[in-house]
Amino acid sequence: MEKMGNSSETVSFVLAAYGNVGELKYLYFIIILIWYLSICVANTVLIVVIRVDRRLHEPMYILLCNLCVNEINASTSLYPLLLSQMFSDSHEVTVSWCFLQMCCLYTSASVELCSLAAMAYDRYISICHPFTYNVIMNTERVFLMILLVWVFSFLSFIFSYSFIFSLKFCGNIIHSVYCDHQLIIRLSCSVSIQSFISDISFAIVSFFIPFSLTLVSYLKILTVCRKTSKENKQKAVTTCTPQIISVSNLCVGCIFNLIDFRSVVSQVPNEVRIILPMYALIFQPMLTPFMYGFNLPKIRQSYQRFSVKEKINILVQI
Protein backbone atom coordinates (compact mmCIF):
# COMPACT_ATOMS: atom_id res chain seq x y z
CA MET A 1 0.00 0.00 0.00
CA GLU A 2 1.49 3.31 -1.03
CA LYS A 3 1.36 6.39 1.14
CA MET A 4 -1.60 8.40 -0.02
CA GLY A 5 -2.04 12.10 -0.17
CA ASN A 6 -5.37 12.53 1.59
CA SER A 7 -7.96 10.72 3.68
CA SER A 8 -10.31 10.02 0.77
CA GLU A 9 -7.56 8.04 -1.04
CA THR A 10 -6.28 6.25 2.07
CA VAL A 11 -8.47 3.18 2.29
CA SER A 12 -6.47 1.28 4.91
CA PHE A 13 -3.74 1.46 7.54
CA VAL A 14 -0.99 -1.09 8.12
CA LEU A 15 -0.44 -2.28 11.70
CA ALA A 16 3.32 -2.67 11.55
CA ALA A 17 3.94 -3.80 15.15
CA TYR A 18 2.95 -7.40 14.39
CA GLY A 19 6.11 -8.04 12.40
CA ASN A 20 7.05 -11.55 11.38
CA VAL A 21 6.63 -13.86 14.37
CA GLY A 22 6.78 -17.05 12.32
CA GLU A 23 5.37 -20.19 13.94
CA LEU A 24 4.90 -18.31 17.24
CA LYS A 25 1.72 -16.79 15.79
CA TYR A 26 -0.13 -20.03 16.62
CA LEU A 27 0.98 -19.82 20.26
CA TYR A 28 0.09 -16.12 20.47
CA PHE A 29 -3.29 -16.81 18.87
CA ILE A 30 -4.15 -19.51 21.42
CA ILE A 31 -3.03 -17.36 24.38
CA ILE A 32 -4.99 -14.32 23.20
CA LEU A 33 -8.09 -16.40 22.39
CA ILE A 34 -8.07 -18.11 25.82
CA TRP A 35 -7.58 -14.77 27.58
CA TYR A 36 -10.40 -13.11 25.61
CA LEU A 37 -12.82 -15.99 26.22
CA SER A 38 -11.87 -16.01 29.92
CA ILE A 39 -12.70 -12.30 30.16
CA CYS A 40 -16.08 -12.81 28.48
CA VAL A 41 -16.95 -15.85 30.62
CA ALA A 42 -15.84 -14.29 33.94
CA ASN A 43 -17.79 -11.07 33.36
CA THR A 44 -20.84 -12.89 31.97
CA VAL A 45 -20.96 -15.20 35.01
CA LEU A 46 -20.95 -12.19 37.33
CA ILE A 47 -23.71 -10.50 35.29
CA VAL A 48 -25.83 -13.69 35.36
CA VAL A 49 -25.35 -14.17 39.12
CA ILE A 50 -26.49 -10.59 39.79
CA ARG A 51 -29.39 -10.93 37.35
CA VAL A 52 -30.66 -14.24 38.78
CA ASP A 53 -30.36 -13.39 42.48
CA ARG A 54 -33.00 -10.81 43.43
CA ARG A 55 -31.09 -10.05 46.63
CA LEU A 56 -28.43 -8.46 44.43
CA HIS A 57 -30.87 -6.13 42.67
CA GLU A 58 -29.39 -3.13 44.47
CA PRO A 59 -27.79 0.03 43.04
CA MET A 60 -24.24 -1.10 43.80
CA TYR A 61 -24.64 -4.41 41.94
CA ILE A 62 -26.57 -2.86 39.05
CA LEU A 63 -23.66 -0.46 38.57
CA LEU A 64 -21.29 -3.42 38.78
CA CYS A 65 -23.26 -5.15 36.00
CA ASN A 66 -22.76 -2.09 33.84
CA LEU A 67 -19.03 -2.21 34.58
CA CYS A 68 -18.88 -5.87 33.51
CA VAL A 69 -20.75 -5.08 30.28
CA ASN A 70 -18.17 -2.40 29.58
CA GLU A 71 -15.29 -4.84 30.22
CA ILE A 72 -16.74 -7.17 27.56
CA ASN A 73 -17.26 -4.22 25.21
CA ALA A 74 -13.68 -2.98 25.62
CA SER A 75 -12.23 -6.46 25.13
CA THR A 76 -14.39 -7.10 22.05
CA SER A 77 -13.14 -3.80 20.61
CA LEU A 78 -9.55 -5.08 20.83
CA TYR A 79 -9.11 -8.85 20.81
CA PRO A 80 -11.02 -9.91 17.64
CA LEU A 81 -8.81 -7.54 15.62
CA LEU A 82 -5.67 -8.93 17.29
CA LEU A 83 -6.78 -12.48 16.53
CA SER A 84 -7.62 -11.74 12.89
CA GLN A 85 -4.29 -9.99 12.35
CA MET A 86 -2.28 -12.97 13.63
CA PHE A 87 -2.79 -14.82 10.34
CA SER A 88 -2.72 -11.78 8.07
CA ASP A 89 0.25 -11.22 5.77
CA SER A 90 -0.42 -7.54 5.10
CA HIS A 91 -1.78 -6.55 8.57
CA GLU A 92 -4.07 -4.03 6.90
CA VAL A 93 -7.18 -2.60 8.52
CA THR A 94 -9.65 -0.33 6.76
CA VAL A 95 -9.84 3.32 7.78
CA SER A 96 -13.51 3.01 8.76
CA TRP A 97 -12.80 -0.04 10.95
CA CYS A 98 -9.87 1.80 12.55
CA PHE A 99 -12.08 4.78 13.41
CA LEU A 100 -14.75 2.42 14.78
CA GLN A 101 -12.20 0.70 17.02
CA MET A 102 -10.93 4.06 18.28
CA CYS A 103 -14.48 5.13 19.09
CA CYS A 104 -15.24 1.91 20.99
CA LEU A 105 -11.96 1.87 22.92
CA TYR A 106 -12.03 5.50 24.02
CA THR A 107 -15.74 5.39 24.81
CA SER A 108 -15.11 2.28 26.93
CA ALA A 109 -12.23 4.00 28.74
CA SER A 110 -14.47 6.93 29.62
CA VAL A 111 -17.35 4.61 30.64
CA GLU A 112 -14.95 2.71 32.93
CA LEU A 113 -13.83 5.82 34.81
CA CYS A 114 -17.30 7.36 34.97
CA SER A 115 -18.79 4.05 36.18
CA LEU A 116 -16.20 3.82 38.96
CA ALA A 117 -17.05 7.41 39.90
CA ALA A 118 -20.76 6.48 40.04
CA MET A 119 -19.95 3.45 42.20
CA ALA A 120 -17.84 5.60 44.53
CA TYR A 121 -20.76 8.04 44.84
CA ASP A 122 -23.06 5.11 45.61
CA ARG A 123 -20.73 3.99 48.43
CA TYR A 124 -20.51 7.57 49.71
CA ILE A 125 -24.32 7.85 49.97
CA SER A 126 -24.59 4.36 51.50
CA ILE A 127 -21.96 4.99 54.20
CA CYS A 128 -22.32 8.72 54.86
CA HIS A 129 -26.10 9.10 54.35
CA PRO A 130 -27.58 5.64 55.07
CA PHE A 131 -31.06 6.90 56.02
CA THR A 132 -31.63 8.66 52.70
CA TYR A 133 -29.82 6.05 50.56
CA ASN A 134 -32.94 4.36 49.18
CA VAL A 135 -34.43 7.72 48.24
CA ILE A 136 -31.31 9.09 46.53
CA MET A 137 -30.16 5.86 44.86
CA ASN A 138 -33.46 4.40 43.67
CA THR A 139 -33.54 1.98 40.72
CA GLU A 140 -34.81 4.51 38.18
CA ARG A 141 -32.07 6.97 39.09
CA VAL A 142 -29.40 4.29 38.84
CA PHE A 143 -30.48 3.28 35.32
CA LEU A 144 -30.62 6.95 34.32
CA MET A 145 -27.10 7.37 35.71
CA ILE A 146 -25.88 4.43 33.61
CA LEU A 147 -27.52 5.84 30.47
CA LEU A 148 -25.93 9.25 31.08
CA VAL A 149 -22.51 7.63 31.58
CA TRP A 150 -22.67 5.95 28.14
CA VAL A 151 -24.06 9.01 26.34
CA PHE A 152 -21.55 11.32 28.05
CA SER A 153 -18.62 9.01 27.20
CA PHE A 154 -19.62 8.67 23.55
CA LEU A 155 -20.15 12.41 23.11
CA SER A 156 -16.86 13.24 24.84
CA PHE A 157 -15.05 11.11 22.25
CA ILE A 158 -16.97 12.60 19.32
CA PHE A 159 -16.42 16.20 20.45
CA SER A 160 -12.73 15.57 21.17
CA TYR A 161 -11.66 13.45 18.20
CA SER A 162 -14.21 13.86 15.40
CA PHE A 163 -11.66 16.07 13.60
CA ILE A 164 -9.59 12.91 12.90
CA PHE A 165 -12.26 11.73 10.45
CA SER A 166 -11.45 14.61 8.09
CA LEU A 167 -7.65 14.55 8.36
CA LYS A 168 -5.45 14.26 5.28
CA PHE A 169 -2.93 11.46 5.65
CA CYS A 170 0.56 11.34 4.15
CA GLY A 171 1.27 7.81 5.38
CA ASN A 172 -0.54 4.65 6.44
CA ILE A 173 1.95 2.76 8.65
CA ILE A 174 0.84 2.53 12.31
CA HIS A 175 3.53 1.18 14.63
CA SER A 176 1.08 -0.56 16.92
CA VAL A 177 -1.11 -3.67 17.06
CA TYR A 178 -4.31 -1.61 17.21
CA CYS A 179 -5.58 1.79 16.02
CA ASP A 180 -3.94 4.27 18.38
CA HIS A 181 -5.30 7.78 17.76
CA GLN A 182 -1.96 9.45 18.57
CA LEU A 183 -0.14 7.38 15.98
CA ILE A 184 -2.88 8.01 13.41
CA ILE A 185 -2.67 11.77 13.97
CA ARG A 186 1.10 11.59 13.38
CA LEU A 187 0.35 10.22 9.91
CA SER A 188 -1.63 13.34 8.96
CA CYS A 189 -0.06 15.76 6.51
CA SER A 190 -0.45 18.67 8.92
CA VAL A 191 -0.80 18.27 12.67
CA SER A 192 -2.48 21.33 14.17
CA ILE A 193 -2.83 22.57 17.73
CA GLN A 194 -6.30 21.00 17.63
CA SER A 195 -4.75 17.60 18.32
CA PHE A 196 -3.15 18.82 21.55
CA ILE A 197 -6.33 20.62 22.63
CA SER A 198 -8.42 17.49 21.92
CA ASP A 199 -6.14 15.31 24.06
CA ILE A 200 -6.31 17.81 26.92
CA SER A 201 -10.10 18.20 26.71
CA PHE A 202 -10.69 14.43 26.57
CA ALA A 203 -8.32 13.87 29.50
CA ILE A 204 -10.07 16.53 31.61
CA VAL A 205 -13.61 15.42 30.79
CA SER A 206 -13.08 11.65 30.77
CA PHE A 207 -10.28 11.20 33.31
CA PHE A 208 -9.67 14.07 35.69
CA ILE A 209 -13.34 14.91 36.41
CA PRO A 210 -14.41 11.28 37.14
CA PHE A 211 -11.18 10.64 39.07
CA SER A 212 -11.69 13.81 41.13
CA LEU A 213 -15.28 12.81 41.94
CA THR A 214 -14.07 9.34 42.95
CA LEU A 215 -11.32 10.80 45.13
CA VAL A 216 -13.71 13.23 46.85
CA SER A 217 -16.18 10.42 47.55
CA TYR A 218 -13.55 8.22 49.17
CA LEU A 219 -12.07 11.09 51.19
CA LYS A 220 -15.53 11.79 52.62
CA ILE A 221 -16.02 8.08 53.33
CA LEU A 222 -12.65 8.02 55.11
CA THR A 223 -13.63 11.05 57.20
CA VAL A 224 -16.88 9.40 58.31
CA CYS A 225 -15.26 6.00 58.96
CA ARG A 226 -12.79 7.56 61.40
CA LYS A 227 -15.71 8.46 63.68
CA THR A 228 -17.71 5.24 63.39
CA SER A 229 -17.60 1.76 64.95
CA LYS A 230 -15.07 -0.94 64.08
CA GLU A 231 -17.79 -3.06 62.43
CA ASN A 232 -18.83 -0.21 60.11
CA LYS A 233 -15.19 0.47 59.29
CA GLN A 234 -14.72 -3.16 58.27
CA LYS A 235 -17.87 -3.07 56.12
CA ALA A 236 -16.68 0.11 54.38
CA VAL A 237 -13.26 -1.42 53.73
CA THR A 238 -14.82 -4.61 52.29
CA THR A 239 -17.08 -2.78 49.83
CA CYS A 240 -14.64 -0.01 48.85
CA THR A 241 -11.40 -2.01 48.44
CA PRO A 242 -12.26 -3.50 44.99
CA GLN A 243 -13.14 -0.05 43.65
CA ILE A 244 -9.96 1.53 45.01
CA ILE A 245 -7.87 -1.25 43.44
CA SER A 246 -9.71 -0.82 40.11
CA VAL A 247 -9.11 2.93 40.07
CA SER A 248 -5.44 2.47 41.02
CA ASN A 249 -4.96 -0.15 38.30
CA LEU A 250 -6.55 2.18 35.72
CA CYS A 251 -4.21 5.00 36.77
CA VAL A 252 -1.22 2.71 36.20
CA GLY A 253 -2.64 1.76 32.80
CA CYS A 254 -3.12 5.42 31.84
CA ILE A 255 0.49 6.21 32.79
CA PHE A 256 1.77 3.32 30.65
CA ASN A 257 -0.43 4.47 27.77
CA LEU A 258 0.89 8.03 27.92
CA ILE A 259 4.57 7.03 27.94
CA ASP A 260 6.15 6.68 24.51
CA PHE A 261 8.41 3.68 25.15
CA ARG A 262 9.94 3.86 21.68
CA SER A 263 11.57 7.20 22.46
CA VAL A 264 11.93 7.05 26.24
CA VAL A 265 13.61 3.69 26.73
CA SER A 266 15.30 2.26 23.66
CA GLN A 267 16.57 -0.80 25.61
CA VAL A 268 13.03 -2.05 26.36
CA PRO A 269 12.21 -5.22 24.35
CA ASN A 270 9.75 -4.73 21.51
CA GLU A 271 7.18 -7.06 23.12
CA VAL A 272 7.17 -4.96 26.30
CA ARG A 273 6.74 -1.74 24.29
CA ILE A 274 3.64 -3.26 22.68
CA ILE A 275 2.10 -4.75 25.84
CA LEU A 276 2.61 -1.93 28.38
CA PRO A 277 0.50 0.70 26.53
CA MET A 278 -2.30 -1.91 26.49
CA TYR A 279 -1.89 -2.74 30.20
CA ALA A 280 -5.35 -1.49 31.18
CA LEU A 281 -7.02 -3.21 28.22
CA ILE A 282 -5.35 -6.51 29.08
CA PHE A 283 -5.69 -6.71 32.86
CA GLN A 284 -8.61 -4.45 33.87
CA PRO A 285 -11.37 -6.57 32.20
CA MET A 286 -10.18 -9.64 34.14
CA LEU A 287 -9.51 -7.77 37.38
CA THR A 288 -13.10 -6.50 37.69
CA PRO A 289 -15.01 -9.82 37.95
CA PHE A 290 -12.40 -11.44 40.18
CA MET A 291 -12.02 -8.47 42.54
CA TYR A 292 -15.77 -8.05 43.00
CA GLY A 293 -16.68 -11.72 42.66
CA PHE A 294 -14.34 -12.94 45.38
CA ASN A 295 -14.20 -9.91 47.67
CA LEU A 296 -17.85 -8.92 48.05
CA PRO A 297 -19.52 -11.38 50.47
CA LYS A 298 -23.02 -11.12 48.94
CA ILE A 299 -21.80 -12.00 45.45
CA ARG A 300 -19.60 -14.82 46.74
CA GLN A 301 -22.51 -16.30 48.72
CA SER A 302 -24.87 -15.89 45.77
CA TYR A 303 -22.42 -17.63 43.44
CA GLN A 304 -22.10 -20.52 45.89
CA ARG A 305 -25.90 -20.87 46.12
CA PHE A 306 -26.15 -20.72 42.33
CA SER A 307 -23.50 -23.45 41.95
CA VAL A 308 -25.20 -25.70 44.51
CA LYS A 309 -28.59 -25.34 42.75
CA GLU A 310 -27.03 -26.25 39.41
CA LYS A 311 -25.40 -29.35 40.90
CA ILE A 312 -28.71 -30.40 42.47
CA ASN A 313 -30.54 -29.93 39.15
CA ILE A 314 -27.93 -32.06 37.37
CA LEU A 315 -28.24 -34.83 39.98
CA VAL A 316 -32.05 -34.76 39.74
CA GLN A 317 -31.91 -35.10 35.95
CA ILE A 318 -29.54 -38.05 36.28
Euclidean distance between termini CA atoms: 60 Å
How would you state the average pLDDT, rounded? 83
Question: Strand-and-helix sequence, N→C?
Answer: EHHEHHHEHHHHHHH
Amount of helix: over 70%
Which structural class do the helices and strands define? Answer: mainly alpha
Low-confidence runs (pLDDT<50, min 5 residues)?
Answer: 1-8
Strand arrangement, largest sheet?
Answer: 2-1-3
Q: What's the number of extended β-strand segments?
A: 3
Rg from Cα = 22 Å
Total of DSSP H or I helical runs spanning 4+ residues: 12
Summarize, please.
The chain has twelve helices and three strands. α1 packs antiparallel against α2, α2 runs parallel beside α5 and α8 packs antiparallel against α11.
Would you write up a description of this structure?
The chain is mainly α and 318 residues long. The chain starts with 11 loop residues before the first strand and ends with a helix. It is 74% helix and 3% strand. α2 runs antiparallel to α3. Strands 2-1-3 form a three-stranded mixed beta sheet. It contains twelve helices and three strands. The protein has helices at 24-52, 59-86, 95-128, 133-136, 139-161, 181-186, 193-225, 230-258, 261-264, 270-275, 279-295, 297-317, and strands spanning 12-15, 92-94, 173-174. This is Olfactory receptor. Belongs to the G-protein coupled receptor 1 family. One of its GO terms (cellular component) is plasma membrane.
